[in-house]
Amino acid sequence: MLTLAGVKGKGLQETSSNPPEPSPTSSGPNWLKQVSSLSFPLVSAQLLSKMLNFFAFFLLTRSLGLQDFGIWIWAFSLIALLASCWSFGLQVWLSKASARAQGHWTHLGDILRKAFSLRLLALLVVGLGGGIWWLIIGPPDNLNADPGLLELTLVGLLIGFIFRTTSELFGATLRGHLITWPDGAALFTARLVFVVLLFWGDRHTGLSLTRVALFFAISEACAGMLNLIIFGSHFKSLKAKSNQEPPPKKYIWASFMKELSLYGGMLLASAFLFRVGMLYSGQSLSADQMGIFAVLHRLNEFSLFLPEALAAVLLPFWTRHDAHQSSPQVLRMAIIMMFTGGLMGAAAWVVGPWVLPHLFPNEAQNVAPWLWVLMPLFALQFSNQTLLAHMMAQNQEKRALVLLVLCGLVALGGMMLFAHHSLLHMIWVILGAEALFTMGGLMPQTEPHVSN
């Protein structure tokens, strides 16, 4: 369930706390203290959004029931994977390109035109391909959902993700000019509006899959409009400043696509690895087992606010150091994060039996025996986020991409061979794929890496 945090979060994008240049002692004993202090505002900001996500989780599970909640997570995972295809790492690249275009507004305008043109083209291609797949193959039979209602649910999710990914382009452009708070404001707005609408619907009209999808689309539209308004106001003020230095070399489409391909590949591979279990469960598991797996998947997604926030600081922190300085740090940090993840999983295992009856009055006894999974899963997931941040900081994106693709193929192949109709076997396959990435990330390089 490793994720690059490019569709469902901001984990490995530009940090919103703008850390200062490391001091000469940053490679010494104080480096961990510096990382912790820089991560605190990010952890706090993401925690607020995750708390709202928990309220949404509570309302959805209580109102939809275990089976419909499993269908919702399956549909959400499907559209999120499609969103990874049309996003293609564009927002990460755009943030860096915007920084290079500082004050050169003609160059920035050309970048934005290319970015939005590519986004529109990718959206059309992905939408057409998804429509053809739906007409030829259709939804899995195990979902036990009305096809018409499921289609409306997917349409609502699709509209919501279009607003979300478009909003991220505006936020990425501002991040390149060190204006980093709009992304947080948009994220919090989307979660707040979604929870308010869910609460209103639960009290007055009742919740269904199609109504929840409509609320999701409305919340993401509100966040997108807010980011657009902020983008317009800041863009006017920034445009008044000019840069007298020669502008960067103009992008041609070939170089533009070459730079994007690496980030896009990593985003797709990480999204596939994170979502493959949830998607394959619709083909392999029974409706009850799928619902149990959906709860575990959602709890794992909720826990990622901590490693994502730390990774957002570790990425620029380690980028300023060579491999000799950061290699001892990454091993220590990976061990710390693995221990932290294991403790959080153990806490969920202990507290879960008291919390689950409030979420699933009838199904709590089915979910509780599986909470042990969160201990090894959180431990591996937390460690892997740290290892992924280090590889990106040392310009080892190709190595990270190879590992992500390999682990995704191992997960898919293992599910097809060993996890048919078995939730336990599927869990062991996912843990094995995560452990494979951990081992690959900890393997030393044969030669010191030289930053580009």
Describe, in plain words, how this protein is organized in 3D.
The protein is built from 14 helices and no strands. It is mainly α and 452 residues long. The protein has one domain. α1 (31-87) packs across α8 (287-303) and α4 runs parallel beside α6 (209-239). The radius of gyration is 22 Å and the shape is globular.
How far do the termini sit from each other?
30 Å
Q: Quick one: overall form?
A: globular
Order of helices and strands: HHHHHHHHHHHHHH
Residue stretches low in confidence (pLDDT < 50, at least 5 long) are 5-27, 446-452
Number of domains: 1
Structure class: mainly alpha
**Count of helical segments?**
14
> Averaged pLDDT, please?
79
- Biggest sheet overview: none
- Level of helix content? over 70%
Based on CA atoms alone, the radius of gyration comes out at: 22 Å
Number of strands: 0
Percent strand equals under 5%
Secondary structure: elements and pairs:
Elements: H1 31-87, H2 90-100, H3 105-136, H4 147-175, H5 181-204, H6 209-239, H7 253-284, H8 287-303, H9 305-319, H10 323-359, H11 364-367, H12 374-393, H13 397-418, H14 423-442
Helix pairs in contact: 1-3, 1-4, 1-5, 1-7, 1-8, 1-9, 1-10, 2-3, 2-4, 4-5, 4-6, 5-6, 7-13, 9-12, 10-12, 12-14, 13-14
